[in-house]
Amino acid sequence: MLGKELQEMLENRSRPIGRLTLLETEEYAGLLQEFAGEIQITQVISPNAFDDIDIAFFTCSPEIMQSYVASGAKFPELTIDLTQAGREGIVLLHGISAARVLKGPGYFVNPHPAAIVIGRLLSVLHNKFVVKSAAITVLQPASERGNAGVDELQEQTVSLLNFQEFEKKTFNAQLAFNILSEPEAAARTEARVIEQLDEILGKTFPKTVITAVQAPVFHSYAFSMFLQLGEAPAAEQVSAYLRSNPRFSTDAPIGGPSPVSVVGTDKIHVGRVHRVNQDNTYALWVVADNLRLAASNAIETADLIMLAQALEA
């Protein structure tokens, strides 16, 4: 799904692409797909498939990425990894990461979607009000488990509505009409996001406390945030300041932004902001499309690196 989102955004962007090559595992290679009015045939992923490729985006499952790494195959000179497989690389959040991370081509890790949202919001608020602490509950969508996660949630929903038994393969219990703690998966997500935030915001930035839970939604992350600020602005001042940044939106339908309402946008949608008590603690409801946000940052990263290369030349 992430690969399809990336492909769609590349097709709709204003800058031209000389040649696009679509790669898949042997199971799915040979499928026909359309790009910019032309039919593309997906090829088997292999080292030879990257010949004459300027930029390689990896959007496959972590398992496929780990298998490719285990094979000993080399990566292209400029690789952007969106798989969250845990392979080490340069973590780059466009507009936030320090310019020093741009040292030309290399292996770049696209941040976890939750790290993108949290990193952008904390960085922006810290520049204005100073963030002293943050405690965040992350509600994860089924699409973070790929097609298997979305399919299982759909199948569970249909089965329960028809009073039928259902299988539990991707999730360890019933997810439909439920919320799961998924301890092992949650711990991996929490550790990865915190590690990436350290690289994005710097190790001196106040540590963020993160709790991840699995929500029964197909797409989009939702966040319940409690932030302690160094100043005491009115809640509307916080909303207005975020509204002034083009990466954020405080416009929302009746009831506020939701995982459904934000699908297809690459902005971070901020709902209710209110001051909780007198120690400058604020509660925020934040929602963002996980697929769109990840793909958008990957493309911006590629543009930034290619621009840096052009300037050096």
Structure explained in plain terms:
It is a single chain. The chain is of the alpha/beta class and 313 residues long. It folds into 2 domains: 2-111 and 295-312, Rossmann fold, CATH 3.40.50; 114-290, Dihydrodipicolinate Reductase, domain 2. The chain has 7 helices and 14 strands. It has helices at residues 2-12, 62-70, 113-129, 146-161, 183-201, 235-243, 290-312; strands at residues 23-24, 32-35, 38-41, 43-44, 56-58, 79-81, 90-91, 107-109, 131-140, 208-214, 221-229, 248-249, 268-275, 281-288. It has a 6-stranded mixed beta sheet. It has a 4-stranded parallel beta sheet with strand order 5-6-8-7. The longest helix is centred in the C-terminal third of the chain and has 23 residues, at 290-312. The mean pLDDT is 91.
Biggest sheet, spatial arrangement of strands: 10-9-11-14-13-12
CATH topology of the largest domain: Dihydrodipicolinate Reductase, domain 2
Count of helix runs = 7
Number of strands: 14
